[in-house]
Amino acid sequence: MLGSPPGTHRTELAAAAPIPAAPSIGDMGKPADPLQRRPDLIAAERRLAASNARIGAAIGEYYPKLSLSALLGSATAVSAGTLFSGGATQAAGLLGLRWRLFDFGRINAEVGEAKGKDAEALAAYRQAVLHADETLLQAADARAQAQTESARAAIATFKALGGGWDTSADPVRLSSAD
Questions:
Q1: Are the C-beta atoms of residues 165 and 158 closer than 8 Å to each other?
Q2: How far apart are CA 91 and CA 167, in angstroms?
Q3: Is the pTM of this model over 0.85?
Q4: Are residues 152 and 113 in the same domain?
Q5: Where does a domain end: 73, 98, 123?
Q6: Neighbours of 121 (CB within 10 A)
Q7: Is residue 90 part of a domain?
Q8: Shortest CA distance to 68 belongs to which of 28, 95, 47, 44?
């Protein structure tokens, strides 16, 4: 799983060391910073942006569309003497106009549908954010409970040993600031 042969890290793991302190959630910047890195929130935000863009595309159907086409070709059979002569080439241009002039009712329905889907995407984004805030709070609560249990276990150990420990000589201290 580590991408190395078995036994490679045995010497590093053999020495006993204190459990490293986990970084506090406050060290990660503003409370919203960890949430902005979550892939589910990024995906929900992109779905909301795409839904918003579909509203603009639906509203764009109210306006006429212009198209320009061009054609350049040869009107003669390919032979040695007529290929590049003046009458051999032909050019054509075409300007097109498409406007859903008598279809505004359907366009209104398409815009309404796009707005409805945008409201649905917004609700899904808000739900994803609330779920992420809830998950973050559960993790912070679990960490606080683990720290409490660690302190209780240390107290039980000290009581079992009869007390008398010196906190200045103890390399691993429980910090009340965490």
A1: yes
A2: 94
A3: no
A4: yes
A5: 98
A6: 20
A7: yes
A8: 95
Residue 165 CB contacts under 8 Å (≥ 6 apart), including other chains? 158
Per-residue pLDDT of the chain (178 residues; tens, 9 = 90+): 668 888 888 888 888 878 777 666 656 667 677 778 889 999 999 999 999 999 999 999 999 999 999 887 766 666 656 656 666 677 788 999 988 888 899 999 999 999 999 999 999 999 999 998 898 889 889 988 998 998 898 888 888 887 766 666 555 555 544 4
Do 83 and 154 lie in a common domain? no
Cβ burial 123-144 (10 Å sphere, 16+ → b, else e): eebeebbeebeeeeeeeeeeee
C-alpha 153/C-alpha 19 separation (Å) is 14
Q: Quote the domain boundaries for residue 127.
A: 28-63+103-159
Query: Which two structure tokens, joined as six digits, stand for 161?
Result: 């040993």
